[in-house]
Amino acid sequence: xxxxxxxxxxxxxxxxxxxxxxxxxxxxxxxxxxxxxxxxxxxxxxxxxxxxxxxxxxxxxxxxxxxxxxxxxxxxxxxxxxxxxxxxxxxxxxxxxxxxxxxxxxxxxxxxxxxxxxxxxxxxxxxxxxxxxxxxxxxxxxxxxxxxxxxxxxxxxxxxxxxxxxxxxxxxxxxxxxxxxxxxxxxxxxxxxxxxxxxxxxxxxxxxxxxxxxxxxxxxxxxxxxxxxxxxxxxxxxxxxxxxxxxxxxxxxxxxxxxxxxxxxxxxxxxxxxxxxxxxxxxxxxxxxxxxxxxxxxxxxxxxxxxxxxxxxxxxxxxxxxxxxxxxxxxxxxxxxxxxxxxxxxxxxxxxxxxxxxxxxxxxxxxxxxxxxxxxxxx
Length: 379
Prior knowledge:
- The protein is α/β, with parallel strands linked by helices.
- It contains ten helices and 16 strands.
- It folds into two domains: about 250 residues, Metallo-dependent phosphatases (Purple Acid Phosphatase, chain A, domain 2), CATH 3.60.21.10; about 120 residues, no CATH class.
- The strands form three sheets. It has a six-stranded mixed β-sheet, covered by helices on one side. A six-stranded mixed β-sheet has the order 5-6-7-8-10-9.
- The longest helix is centred in the first third of the chain and has 24 residues.
């Protein structure tokens, strides 16, 4: 028996660092990932697709977002089981009970809206654990697994849950008790545990997997191996499930850090950023550390401005940026300033070299002054 395990579509997601054009492309990419997922299901001859929570970003979405999303799900040629998660729980405002969802819901969509066993077909069951609020007092999956009777002989039962995994030795009833779930796996009562919430593809233990998000949602220093779905083979003879990640995402959020000490380092950093592929689908968050002169800082600012026109977005990584701009005497003299302007520049230089709280602001002001008086560095 083969199926596709996915989660955390978060349809309707927005990102503050994307302008209107990039956000529109990002939104379309999240829908396109559903279509590619459907192609994977068809190519792999999967029996069904299970989406382990957070299908939608929020229960308060525009009707058009819901309708367009369901139109894409309708193109998947097999049943699609949707589990409500913490972003889209089955509360009073739930999308799954809304008029717009009922109107546009395709025939192949089944909402796992009750805890317990749902039959896929004779011999195959889903043990579902939907969320009914954003902050449940206890983990729905641990409760559902604990309450379920053992399946009949020969029945393949797949647990479907959402939420964080309880670390070994820890105690928190709001997290999935992997030890308790694993005991049911070891006993053969469960054949696979499909989880959502973690956006990176993760094997928690044999038979327990997070599929990750099918399209990237965070930068790669926090979210690794996202953009995939899992093709899961569960042998009829009782053997262990085989899991194969298949990439369906097309975007990338890249976090990069560069130490700088001169023109050569600036050139190398810009070259590295320029070498990233698929720039219209790539967001870069970049941090710089070290000390550079006015010319190097002006060149860096000009190059970053040029890169912003090519990438989906280029953000300064504030937490990882500690770049001092200390001009040499020759650079300051090259500005050819006189009178009050020269005095102001000298004062800024003193503040920048002091290393005090205002040093960064003074360095930035000097770099801007250099760019304004040396227009050739901006072209």
